[in-house]
Amino acid sequence: MPEKENRSDYTDKEDKKLDKEISKAQQDVGSRSESEPLQIGVDPKSDEGLVKQELIVKTLVNKLSDWENWRKPYEDKWDEAYRLFFNKDDEAKLPTRAKIFVPMIFRIIESGVPLITNTIFSSENLFDVVPTNPKDADIAELIKILLTYQLGQANFFPKFIDFAKQLCLYGTSYFKVYWKVVRKWVWERTPIRKDVSLFGIRLPARIVGWKEEKKFKVTERRPEIDVLDVLDVFPDPSASNEREGEGVFIRTWMSMDDLRELGAGKYPVYANTDKETLTKKEKSSTDTSRSDRLTTRGVSSVLPTKARGVEVMEWWGKYDLDGDGIREEAYIVIANRSILLKAVSNPFHHQKRPLVRSVLFSVPMEWFGIGLVEPIVDQQHELNTIRRQRLDNINMVLNRMWKVLDTGDVDTTQLISAPNHFVLVGQMDALEPMETKDVTQSSYTEAQTLMQEMESTTVTRAASGLPESGRLGRTASGARLIVGQSLEKFSLAVRLIEETAVKRTLRMMHQLNLQFIDDDDVLRDPGMYGHLFDQDMTPEAIRAEVSFQMKAASEMINSEAKINQLASFLGMGKDVMEGETIGKVLKKIYKLMGFDPDEINIVGQTAPPAPPPLPAGDGAGGDPNSALANEIARNGAQSQPSAVRPAPPTLQ
Question: Which of 451, 448, 450, 458 is CA-nearest to residue 375?
């Protein structure tokens, strides 16, 4: 919906123009009857309609409450992972003991996120569009150009970093993919041209000025991608992915002003925005989890914006809105778990829930996955304990305890371990130090073993960019082999992210383009997509059945192993392979290294010179003995080894 403006500055003529623009903009959602926020089979304002609204709210809120209680144990795990990531632990029982925290989990998370991100985005071309029908290759190329531009408009790369970090922390992460239309007041400048003629000859028009006009128009029309907080998605306990189960709840927050604006105008997005009960909000367990997060970082647990805002709960799933007894995919919005704002059928042609879910390490037949923190929580606590005990032991050695004779004349306030310090005693045997042995040597070995276990379970040192010890890690080929093995370990997780997150996002974006880009002007508007193409575009130019293939990960995961295999093969067969074959192998290696093989030229071996032509008389009409001699000489010359071996191919 458009942002509100001060209408007092405009004339009646401009008001009518604005109404026309708004009316035209409503074509995105169809006719007025189709854009009604409450489509429940009866008049929403009638007694029957009010009763049905209450029934819808009651049914879904009860379902939400049950699903929220089922999810609570997972929230406890996420809270612990969040605290460990920020190096926060429970308070020590003894205030004199060390409170050091070893930031091992922080290092693992900050190593896993770049590993995932750089693997998927290691190539300039993130994906390829493969047409189902080979005749649609040109259309597939146009679809790729459009989707690549839209990913940039949606800031996909920085959002993917947040997505990947949440994935590593909690094991589950979400994208929401929907259609976004932005309408704003913008200034447009159009040239004022004047015809020019010279001696009766008409010349091109000359610009004599500019006309500036403020217009209310669509500035963006594209798919949008949002990263959802794991706390704001409530899945069906019986579902293992977003396509199964009854549906899913998605929680957002909205200020009261924004909500009331969406309920105003001729074509409101939401209904019932004038209800007084919208100001009442019940505290849920999710609020507690979110407050615990903020408290962990020392931030106030009260969020002023959200405290004054409205909890908006979206339901994407099955519901019988028209009362025909058949549950269909619906989109229902409830405010503060009490007011029905919207109830319509799923507005998307693909009839999918606009949620993209991905897990790092999957658990069979379960919704939530496992991240990098959950498997090593106990090891992190043990590592902290060993480090603290080591510091406590050193502290006890340096600041020893004393045995004091109760009848001795000893000033206990002087019992301080300090250089050049002395203690006054009445008798020498009245004071005796308590010796504490230094037992820290074994703790170093135990701590190193724990860290190796945590790395082998999650992200190895080689994959995180740290040097490996041993003979293998000291050589370039050995280091490449170690990194390759680390990527192999992470390959399944990366490919799962590609399939469940990136490809599904691209597929959903393409389907939204097919539904909402239905006007030639959208593709030809220079402010939207017209600058992308060098030809006049129509919606038919992007309509084709295609699939998406990720380029970077599949090449990078096994690249080191493939490079080593090709290098070994080249070393074994370079003496017997032709120059053209050697050149192909070298280009393949160059490509696996992440470079463009078309950037290099390879000079191969030259072909051996052709034998001289036989003189006349080698057949009929010639001397047969001479022909035989020539044949023997030619065969003998070919059988002789060459004195100079051709040079191997070289790179230019």
Answer: 458
